[in-house]
């Protein structure tokens, strides 16, 4: 592994920015909050909301030329209520089969604007944008602008999407905010603590908004009973397998998620799938004062499974800062273990987590840590090599502040453990 980190000591962190809400400017029957996700090898799920609950059609027309739709697909819609809030109609339609690496033009519900999407490639290389704890502030807008400014194939989000925190209208605002990006590239998300809603007397779903709005391919990956809280999918024709774990579903040995994870990892053939990634919300390794040891129980229950499967990288959120560790297993540097990266710095309204613990037991394993907003990109170049870059959100600029090249653990001779070169910015 080759590590490179810039040391911009002159960087001055800007102050916090306020919450922003994106208003609805569409007619009641027109689609809004449009986003897409992958379903299986060659299909996409298109999701959107209409204020009109009864007459808006759950249908997507699509084709490879603007305004020329050669295919269509029907789906279904649902609604939910939370207290006095009643959602609009939430539509989900699966389209395909689709060709990889192809641009498609589509219209939802036979109304409103035309959108376009590009399907992920069938082979390597592939580039993932990775951002956690996104929220909807001016910093979020800046981060989204940086992500949109450079092409990518798929976005991965390890929890804490809207920061609605029971205020359901903020889910609608968030959907409108991310629509320009989420309607064009698949967004694959997992739940965070801010997706949980306090239970009410007439339902028992703590993730009622998340589960209804952001439906992921859990059934296709054999995770049926726990809905969207954990699932997996393949990318780049199966060259990469991505496991989305649920920090807020049962995870101990004997739980459904633990049994599912064992089955899922056992089904990965590393000769065909040289790259294996995992995402979860509460980090297993963390030297920040914020959220200390909140992922420890899950680590104790599941770390061995990921290590034995030779997972290459584990991404987490929750802590509002960036931190990259060396390869680790069981609190020790291990060249056969995953690299752990905390990327909970998308732009949330709770501000940053600025304090790291200098004498933390894992400090010697921490290679780079900084309390700034930003996003990351993992570009898997080929079967053996990938590059990870963290882009600090420096207002109008996305500055590459941390970079590392990785070699797949599926390769016969993984790179030796390099000496740690830790960078710490308070």
Automatic annotation (TrEMBL):
<comment type="similarity">
    <text>Belongs to the metallophosphoesterase superfamily. Purple acid phosphatase family.</text>
</comment>
<keyword id="KW-0378">Hydrolase</keyword>
<dbReference type="InterPro" id="IPR029052">
    <property type="entry name" value="Metallo-depent_PP-like"/>
</dbReference>
<protein>
    <recommendedName>
        <fullName>Purple acid phosphatase</fullName>
        <ecNumber>3.1.3.2</ecNumber>
    </recommendedName>
</protein>
<dbReference type="GO" id="GO:0003993">
    <property type="term" value="F:acid phosphatase activity"/>
</dbReference>
<feature type="domain" description="Purple acid phosphatase N-terminal">
    <location>
        <begin position="31"/>
        <end position="117"/>
    </location>
</feature>
<dbReference type="InterPro" id="IPR041792">
    <property type="entry name" value="MPP_PAP"/>
</dbReference>
<feature type="domain" description="Calcineurin-like phosphoesterase">
    <location>
        <begin position="128"/>
        <end position="322"/>
    </location>
</feature>
<dbReference type="InterPro" id="IPR039331">
    <property type="entry name" value="PAPs-like"/>
</dbReference>
<dbReference type="InterPro" id="IPR003961">
    <property type="entry name" value="FN3_dom"/>
</dbReference>
<dbReference type="InterPro" id="IPR008963">
    <property type="entry name" value="Purple_acid_Pase-like_N"/>
</dbReference>
<dbReference type="InterPro" id="IPR004843">
    <property type="entry name" value="Calcineurin-like_PHP"/>
</dbReference>
<dbReference type="Pfam" id="PF00149">
    <property type="entry name" value="Metallophos"/>
</dbReference>
<feature type="region of interest" description="Disordered">
    <location>
        <begin position="13"/>
        <end position="32"/>
    </location>
</feature>
<keyword id="KW-0732">Signal</keyword>
<dbReference type="Pfam" id="PF14008">
    <property type="entry name" value="Metallophos_C"/>
</dbReference>
<dbReference type="InterPro" id="IPR015914">
    <property type="entry name" value="PAPs_N"/>
</dbReference>
<feature type="domain" description="Purple acid phosphatase C-terminal">
    <location>
        <begin position="337"/>
        <end position="403"/>
    </location>
</feature>
<dbReference type="InterPro" id="IPR025733">
    <property type="entry name" value="PAPs_C"/>
</dbReference>
<dbReference type="GO" id="GO:0046872">
    <property type="term" value="F:metal ion binding"/>
</dbReference>
<dbReference type="Pfam" id="PF16656">
    <property type="entry name" value="Pur_ac_phosph_N"/>
</dbReference>
<keyword id="KW-0325">Glycoprotein</keyword>
